[in-house]
Amino acid sequence: MSTPTQERRRASARPRRSGPRPSPLWREAARLAAPYAAPAWRRASAWRRTTLGPVTEVVSPLGWLLAAVVLVLAALGGAFGWQEARIAALMGALLLVGAVAFVLGRSVYEVRLDLNRTRVAVGDRAVGGMEVRNAAPKALAPSSMELPVGAATAHFHVPRLGPGAVHEDLFTIPTQRRAVIPVGPVRSIRQDPFGLLRRQVRWTDTRDLFVHPRTTALDGSSSGFIRDLEGLPTRDLSSSDVSFHALRDYVAGDDRRHIHWKSTARTGELMVRQFEETRRSHLAVSLSTNTQEFAAESDFELAVSAAASIGLQAVREQRNLSVMTQDGPLRTETGRNLLDDMTRIEGRARRATLVDLARATADAVPNASVFFLVTGSVATPSQLRAASVHVPVGVRAFALRCAQGLQPGRASIGDLTVISLGSLDDLGLVLRKAAP
């Protein structure tokens, strides 16, 4: 007779079956039903939204809570014969039924939402108006209107309106900070005094208010741009350009229009003009949106305003312009497009640093003639030096360090000109001093 220990040894010595275990029945059924379940769920969701949605959306969270309490009290009263629970359930049901009377009815309005200006600068006054007209053939009872403005909601009281009567309201939108503020839609509200049921009707679409960053005008002498319309000459030689360099012997294939006939007659051999390549004025602005390079949020807003001012000056002078951030290029076809994209910029902590941004800008704009690196005061000289390495040779490079209250100044790190900016009003002065 074998002992238990011997039996365990024999069991462990037996070869085990390899291969996948058979799937349970419910998994196989789920796999077969998956292609049919998804369309059925979508159809059920669409039916719920179109059929039950108009009803369920009217009930507020407080209304759903009261309905659940009514059901629980009714169940307890029926199960245990509690008269108090039955009476409480009846009172709650009467409240729900009575609330229905407040949301019934139909209002016919013509509502117009008007913004005086859809684009303002930080600190400017943004004014809008709402016009409500009774389009019904009979008088309408007083009602309430809601106007979402960003994260807040403005409430307006509309008095009793006769047929064709018009009611107007004016409102002011705060513009203390750069943002894209959605305004609207205007909604009429019907609800009971307890807030159990709430019915809203949308009358207008949403409109966007752009609060552009504050900018400052730069005159021609302080813009710091390359002013030569034909560009600056480089050390690269070319057989066809506008900056004359020297004469050389004719080589087969040279353009005969560049033959210098006086020198040819004097030397007895064909001589052609040789030129230096010129670079068209193209401004590249790299705006860092990595908040780790800024000491405060106000410093980041100063950097956005400075970059927007430089870019807007380039657009006004009809210069070629490219603006890059860690999120990619901005639109620069017009000043309006540039400021709109500047308004949408959001700063956050990123892994991509100023060095990565400089590398991406150099790859995207290889023909730049002026290079601006806009960052905060936290950026170290070693980071600025590493970023300047990616600036192409022969390109005028500036680093703009922005921080509120920073003393205006100018320094050099190799070929990189470092400018300190403490106020947007000083931008023209510091650029004038740093201009070549």
TrEMBL record:
Alphabetical list of InterPro entries matching this protein: DUF58
Biased composition annotated in UniProt, kind: Basic and acidic residues: 1-10
Region of interest (Disordered), ranges: 1-24
Recorded superkingdom: Bacteria
Organism in which the protein naturally occurs: Arthrobacter halodurans
Keywords, ordered alphabetically: Membrane, Transmembrane, Transmembrane helix
Protein's name according to its UniProt entry: DUF58 domain-containing protein
Domain DUF58: from-to ranges: 247-328
PANTHER family: SLR1927 PROTEIN, SLR1927 PROTEIN-RELATED
Transmembrane segments: 58-81, 87-109
Record-linked Pfam families: DUF58
